[in-house]
Amino acid sequence: MVTIFTVLLMLSSLLMIVLVLMHKGRGGGLSDMFGGGVSSGLGGSSVAERNLDRITVGTGVIWFACIIALGLLLKSGS
């Protein structure tokens, strides 16, 4: 059981990294430092951005649940 949660944690961690990097920079952060400060005139959130936000939050919940489950399993000695 620990192995399953460990693999799921690694996969969700990698997916979380990719999803966070896909997000558009909001300004004032590291994205501006490396040329990401050029804003387009489209403004507002598109459907794709909102879906990306939802997927990122869902992946974060899975990641958090894996951390809790692994902590409980390793504490109980299973």
Quick structural gist:
The chain has 78 residues and is an all-alpha fold.
Topology:
Elements: H1 2-22, H2 30-33, H3 47-76
Tell me what the structure shows:
- This protein is 71% helix and 0% strand.
- The protein is built from 3 helices and no strands.
- It has helices at 2-22, 30-33, 47-76.
- The longest helix is centred in the last third of the chain and has 30 residues, at 47-76.
- It starts with a helix and ends with a helix.
Distance between the termini: 8 Å
Radius of gyration: 17 Å
Q: Tell me the series of helices and strands, N- to C-terminal.
A: HHH
Strand content: under 5%
Quickly give the structural class.
Answer: mainly alpha
Low-confidence stretches: none
Largest sheet: none
Helix content, binned percent: over 70%
Taking all residues together, what is the mean pLDDT? Answer: 83
